[in-house]
Design a protein that fits this description.
single chain, alpha/beta, eight-stranded mixed β-sheet, seven-stranded mixed β-sheet, globular
Length: 339
């Protein structure tokens, strides 16, 4: 059986749910598919977003007002006026899906997309297929939609994150830069009574992630900042190679990419939620009748310069001896990064 739709959305994270809502509001018949059982679960995210992003009050765990950057064993450098919010990511995603459903999108979970045929038919593990005039790939850094049009994220960072008790109130994001965290950094992001503690590294060093996070955890436990209990564990991949061509065709079917599938995560910080929401909305608008070329131009205008700078800094850092000066030049808290 092949179901017909105007728009087929792959993935119901922030990009996919935003795309589904935008297209449905413009009168499109939207079928959106996600392999998860429910929106946002399990959480695979550090959950920090900029303060400017519109977020429902019930999805916010706490406000962030500054950044502390630890370079090797030195005292932290404080970056004031760094406003952000720590999310309850599961609630955030569920809220975006609820908006898509209210707009008229048919959102389906526990659906694994097996393939996209040369004719643009999306085949699932549920015994049916879906065909749309447009496919929106919001299915993450290893996007099936992206592979279908030859836009593939080839540079990734692998992450590991634990949630731990936070023993004292904290309103800063802590960043740990070290030669011992190759191609990435460590973080401690507070969420009220708990905190997300993690690290990201280039794939060649993925085997070191467990010990890197364990060392960070032990150090912060000795300092009396966090408890020894591990409340939860997660991880995943982040694209760090910069923006891909965000559209292509499968026969006559237009395929658009949004969020991580389009390589919109920042190559230095890994931040991608805000870009996912906005690119998803734009993709939904394009699917409802705007130009695909305009979509690419809009993404380039919004994110091109920042992503290009971040990619340059990342490549410089990977090519350099990771001394303290190089670590600072490769991080957004320092003037050297912006020069």
């Amino acid at each position: 059986m092949i179901e017909a739709a105007d728009v087929v959305v792959l993935g119901l994270g922030p990009a996919g749910a935003s795309a589904a809502a935008a297209a449905a509001r413009r009168g499109c018949k939207v079928i959106a598919l996600d392999r998860k059982r429910e929106a946002g679960v399990p959480v695979q995210c550090a959950e920090l977003v900029p303060a400017m992003l519109e977020v429902a009050a019930g999805s916010v765990r706490q406000a962030i007002d500054c950044m502390l950057t630890f370079v090797e064993d030195e005292a932290p450098d404080r970056t004031p006026h760094f406003p952000g919010r720590m999310l309850d990511r599961a609630r955030f995603d569920a809220g975006l899906v609820a908006r898509a459903v209210e707009a008229g999108a048919d959102c389906r979970f526990s659906v694994l997309v097996r393939s996209i045929s040369p004719e643009g038919v999306v085949r699932t593990n549920q015994g049916y297929s879906v065909r749309g005039n447009t496919i929106i790939g919001a299915d993450g850094p290893r996007s099936l939609a992206g592979r279908a049009i030859g836009s593939v994220n080839r540079e990734l960072v692998e992450t590991r994150q634990i949630t731990v008790p936070l023993l004292e109130p904290h309103a800063a994001t802590d960043i740990f830069l070290s030669a011992g965290i190759p191609g990435g950094y460590g973080w401690l992001f507070p969420k009220g009574e708990v905190a997300n503690l993690g690290a990201g590294v280039v794939p060649a060093h993925k085997g070191k992630l467990k010990s890197i996070v364990a060392r960070l955890h032990a150090s912060l436990t000795r300092d009396g900042r966090v408890g020894s209990e591990v409340v939860s564990l997660t991880g995943g991949a982040i694209p760090v190679g910069g923006m891909l061509k965000p559209f292509g065709f499968r026969d006559e079917t237009l395929v658009l990419l949004a969020g991580d599938a389009a390589g919109l995560a920042n190559p230095v910080t890994g931040a991608g939620i805000a870009a996912a929401v906005h690119s998803g909305r734009l993709a939904g608008q394009v699917a409802a009748g705007a130009s695909a070329q305009t979509y690419q131009e809009e993404l380039e205008d919004l994110y091109g310069a920042a992503l290009e700078r971040a990619l340059r800094r990342r490549l410089e850092l990977l090519a350099a001896v990771p001394e303290k000066a190089a670590l600072r030049r490769g991080w957004i808290a320092y003037p050297e990064y912006w020069q």
